[in-house]
Amino acid sequence: MAPEWFVYMVRTSGGALYTGITTDVERRFSEHQAGAPKGARSLRGKGPLTLVFHASAGDRSRASRLEWRIKQWTRARKEALVSGRLTLPDDV
Between 65 and 47, where is the model more confident? Predict the structure, then answer.
């Protein structure tokens, strides 16, 4: 059975939003918080970090498409997703 994938967003201390995918949100967030060598390079030194959003994305293919789509969004749209005023698109 294929693992369930999630899309997630992390907020840096400066307010930037990082979007990623994983099969284990807690483990991945811990890796980001710990920094090198497993955390995302773009998050290093930008803590403290806060996990602000995560949602099931189905398989890896759909998770990757959702991640790409969210990364194209404006900051306002990302903030709407984080606050619950917007949901993930179904057409991905």
Answer: 65
